[in-house]
């Protein structure tokens, strides 16, 4: 069996050399433990922050230790009363082909409800992020204009659709014509902007003639600057992510104080993990919307454990529409 460890702390953009494959020998599970076979590995932008040796909201990965992230796995041997052979579980686990863990570190998922990969996407961390960030902080009202960046990604594509369900007008910003076409034609976004081929400020003026009421921030940088220049009074900005700066050494802004004063807008960072007590509510609501066909989700799947690093690097090239996953 194999695992992937952090080989070096990347300067700027990570590369394949950031990661190293190692062979592992697994012990048989002890009492309370299970042997798992990995089915899906989630690659997520926040993991880039954990590769730096810097204090943040989550602990840095240790050099030479396995990279960890969201994983869906199958129980192939159990010495726990809580799980039996064949059960499917989700957890924050090492990037490995197989592993032995305490049963209480994973959560069983109901494979009859939805494809199990959704536990890492629309019905998992990224769906919850969209749900809480948009509804709790953005609080979109019918007829308001909601702008979302990284709109065709895992979080952004769900944000835009929930905003539509709530009766808002939705404008999505993404990095290719395939993505903007998908947002408009498949997901029903009202307006779309390709930030790689259009001037974002001009495009926003056209797409948001009555200004911006909610900006769901996923990318920061110049895109964030352009949207923040067009806020309506009392606009809300859930600050979910700032991926355009994750590979930069310097914090590249924005400087927003006077803009926030003029618009009386509220900009608030959040972490999905803070909503743990309400995960059940979100999972039920998201599940209902998915079953009713009101909420669509896409997955971009890389095949094979060999391709986990390339999948992760792909997040920074925009190689995904919807949730980026690796299937083993
Ligand atoms: P995505 O599926 O959206 O993948 C990342 C996307 O970001 C890419 O597909 C790419 O799309 C876009 N992107 C990459 N580099 C840039 C850039 N320089 N400028 C603009 N866009 C870029 O990932 P997630 O949905 O998982 O995450 C989206 C954001 O939400 C991230 O910032 C992430 O850190 C954050 N997040 C925050 C959480 C929280 O609790 N606060 C929890 C989960 C995620 P394109 O082709 O459009 O460029």
UniProtKB/TrEMBL annotation:
Keywords: Oxidoreductase. SMART domains: PKS_ER. Gene3D superfamilies: Medium-chain alcohol dehydrogenases, catalytic domain, NAD(P)-binding Rossmann-like Domain. InterPro entries: ADH-like_C, ADH_N_2, ER, GroES-like_sf, MDR_fam, NAD(P)-bd_dom_sf. It holds the Pfam family ADH_zinc_N. One of its GO terms (molecular function) is oxidoreductase activity, acting on the CH-CH group of donors, NAD or NADP as acceptor. It is an enzyme of class 1 (oxidoreductase). Residues 15-326 form the Enoyl reductase (ER) domain. CDD domains: PGDH (cd05288). The keyword Transport does not apply. It comes from the Bacteria. PANTHER family: PROSTAGLANDIN REDUCTASE (PTHR43205), PROSTAGLANDIN REDUCTASE 1 (PTHR43205:SF7). This is Putative oxidoreductase. It comes from Exiguobacterium oxidotolerans.
